[in-house]
Amino acid sequence: MNKKVGRNSPCPCGSGKKYKNCCANLAEAIEFSADPWVKSNQLMTELKIKLENNYSRDIKKIRRDAMQSFLRFTTDENNMAPDYEAIFSDWLWFDLKLKAGKTIGQDYAGRNALVPILNEALDSLNRSFLSVYCVKASMDNYLQITDLFSGEDLKILLKEPWETEITPRILLLGRVVTIMGNPIFSGMVLVLQAAEDQELFLREHVKHWQELIGGSISEMFKNHGEVLLGLFDHAFHKNLIRLQELYSLSLTPTEKEALLAGLLSSDYSLAFQIEDFDWYKPKAQNDRYCRIAVGEESALISADFLKDLDEMKKLVTAATGKAEMKMVHSKLAESISPEDLRWWFLIMKDQETERWLSTPLAELENQTPRQVLTEPDGKDRIIALLDEFIAACETSQFEEMHDILIYIKDRITQM
After folding, report:
1. Within a 10 A sphere around the Cβ of 72, how many other Cβ atoms?
2. How far apart are CA 390 and CA 403, in angstroms?
3. CA torsion 341→342→344→345, rounded to 10°?
4. Collapsed DSSP state (helix, strand, coil) of residue 89
5. Nearest to 228 by CA among 329, 302, 150
6. Which residues pair with 131 in a beta bridge?
7. CB-based burial label for 396 (10 Å; 0-12, 13-18, 19+)
8. Cα(first)–Cα(last) distance of the chain, in Å?
9. Which of 113, 122, 109, 139 is nearest to 178 (CA)?
10. Buried b (16+ CB within 10 A) or exposed e, 322-340
């Protein structure tokens, strides 16, 4: 803010107050405060109040949809945990792009003039992003941390000394900003006393995510902080995250023969043959979705979880010599090219079959189709029921549902 503002003039921050009753008072109050954390936090809080006041109508309109986007990778995507509220607010203001590809914070910076200390603080908030940090040491009101993914060391100013015992794997999910030269956390920080496998889960999934979308770690976290929140949330609850990944690769006749031979000597067995593909799944029974489908000129690899996916890709590469596979779909990178939609719909039909087989149906006295199939006439009952559903679809506009039901029936006939 280069132009001098009169004390009785409207404050250029856009608050509607006189300058003497707004940013002038703030600058003076900050100047006389002795505690560096209080100074930094006061500046940050004042900025967030200004954003809330200036964009309250916009936020009200988008809050529900934004919350769904923010939570969509968490273990409970329908409910906002109280600890997530402050993290969500920062994500909403400083990460989520809305108007003309800008965040609320960026839009506010472009529309209003601020006193230098507020402008510097807003710039730091606009550049900030979520990350995961390992606690290394504490001294007085400072915490020594290291970014789990970039390896950057930081010395964070705290409100009060860290009193928790420092063990090898205390992980923090938070947003670091530098205010008046002091690196501090913005808002809430989530704490995880991690076991080795939880830290490994985070490292492996972030590495895989980066391989999928490319770019730097900081760009990933800035543009998709909700993904990192989801991964941290799954690590905290010790749950695997369903990635719903699908890869395709082209095959020559020799490569197809080699892949089928490799599958024959592996832990996978032929489950069924549908739509010109031989479908293989693990011999060991489990509830995890894993499929390798082999066609005349193509193969498809689909799995929900990263560990299964890595094992399947290694198997296919060892058999065919092909390490490069085309990513068709991933929950971490959801765009699907038009030419690949056929593969995604094919896998979706197979996944829907598995879901349907395990769903209690009123038409089956609340038994699942899988349960009914164990009965002497169970297969005939299921096929008759599917024929009813298919006939109903033929008189409606549900073409996709009709295709799914035909696929389910084909699967049932091969059981």
Report:
1. 14
2. 9
3. 110
4. helix
5. 150
6. 174
7. exposed
8. 74
9. 122
10. beebebbbbbbbeebeeeb
**Rounded CA gap, 287 and 308, in Å?**
12
Contact (Cβ atoms closer than 8 angstroms) between residue 59 and residue 48: no
Q: In this structure, what token pair is assigned to residue 364? A: 């089956």
343, 328 Cβ separation under 8 angstroms? yes
Packed helices 196-213 and 225-236: angle between N→C axes, nearest 10 degrees: 150
Give the C-alpha separation, 69 to 61, whole Å: 14
pLDDT, one tens digit for every residue, the chain (415 residues): 445 677 777 777 777 787 777 777 666 666 555 688 988 888 898 899 889 989 999 899 999 999 999 999 999 999 999 999 999 999 999 999 987 889 999 999 998 888 888 899 999 999 999 999 999 999 999 999 999 999 999 999 999 999 888 888 899 999 999 998 899 999 889 999 999 999 999 999 999 999 999 999 999 999 999 999 999 999 999 999 999 999 999 999 999 999 999 999 999 999 999 999 999 999 987 788 999 999 999 999 999 999 999 999 999 999 999 999 999 999 998 778 899 999 999 999 999 999 999 999 999 999 999 999 999 999 999 999 999 999 988 877 677 899 999 999 999 999 8
Distance CA 99, CA 94 (A): 12
Q: What's the pTM value of the predicted model, to 2 decimals?
A: 0.90
Tell me how far apart the alpha carbons of residues 45 and 179 are, in angstroms, rounded to a whole number: 11
* Residue partners of 3: CB distance under 8 A and separation at least 6: 113
The helix/strand count (H/E) of the chain reads as 15, 12
